[in-house]
Amino acid sequence: MRAWVLLSAVLWYLTGAGWQRSSERTGKGLIYGKPGHPVKIYVKLHHSSPILACMDFKRAKKETVDPTYSWIGPNEKPLTGKLKMEDFQEALSGLYSCTLSYKTVKAETQEETVVKQRYDFMIFAYREPDYSYQMAVRFTTKSCEGRYNDLLFRVLKKILDNLISDLSCHVVEPSYKCHFVKIPKHGLVHELFIAFQVNPFAPGWKGACNDSADCEDITNHNILQARDRIEEFFRSQAYIYYHDFNKTIPAMHFVDHSFQVVRMDSCRPGFGKNEGLHSNCASCCVVCSPGTFSPDVDVTCQSCVSIRVYGAKSCT
């Protein structure tokens, strides 16, 4: 039985009434340095970094005699040539500095001069935020007293859970309050203000990841589908209100246009958002820098002066 039909039957049962009538993220390209200006680069966790060129764009367009390249990474390990990292991890984040050495040769005297230029790259691991949705709807009711309000609330939650269970999503933190609402030309009406969250972490949700390192891509895809299903469910309730019941409504019914939805982002431990520091990746969950940590699924990294690593999950 379709979910909207089931709820309609429940509403009929409850009332017995007649019916009436929403810097840069990187690909796999080549990134040049900028003399005197650190270049910020954001690499998705477990993906490959772009190729970092120890040279600026203008120099790359010119002849360069006897070039040599010297890299120093966060672990102070010397590297040479162009730099690219596979399967990027939190610990690989940090400052990468390179020095380009080359020669200029005077045509008249063949006098050689060694020129050195330093380039800095600040590289940060990031991951997509985990999506969840805060939703709210309203239903009319006969009275703010009595067991039918609680019964409707519990039945609605069960219907919504069943609607999205195959997506490993579920309804959490549901609540409702009953209010008196003064409606023009209709006087006072009792209404249930129902609120709940929907997230993609129902029991067994990791089974949907299929061993994928980027599980948030899968869970975010699932929660978007869950949002669409729930929105369609309440849209069908409005359709019933206007088309299917010959201008009769139950005493308890969905209030048209009352459905509201807001996306809420969270970051995995060791990651957080900081629009000031990471304006070029403002929507990303960026690895927590030294001096900060994130112990849970918060949205920001907290201060902790003793931390000297990237991606800290505790202040130790």
UniProtKB/TrEMBL annotation:
Q: Does the keyword Glycoprotein apply?
A: yes
As for subcellular location, the record says: Cytoplasmic vesicle, Secretory vesicle, Acrosome; Secreted
Q: Which residues form the signal peptide?
A: 1-19
Record domain Zona-pellucida-binding protein 1/2 C-terminal: where = 267-315
- GO cellular component terms? acrosomal vesicle; extracellular region; zona pellucida receptor complex
Q: Which UniProt keywords apply?
A: Cytoplasmic vesicle, Glycoprotein, Secreted, Signal
Residues in domain Zona-pellucida-binding protein 1/2 N-terminal?
Answer: 38-127
Q: Which GO terms describe its biological process?
A: acrosome assembly; binding of sperm to zona pellucida
Pfam family, any one = EGF_Sp38_C
- The answer to keyword Ribonucleoprotein applying to this record is no
Family according to the record? Belongs to the zona pellucida-binding protein Sp38 family.
Do you know which PANTHER family this protein is assigned to?
A: ZONA PELLUCIDA BINDING PROTEIN SP38 (PTHR15443), ZONA PELLUCIDA-BINDING PROTEIN 2 (PTHR15443:SF4)
Q: What is the recorded name of this protein?
A: Zona pellucida-binding protein 2 isoform X2
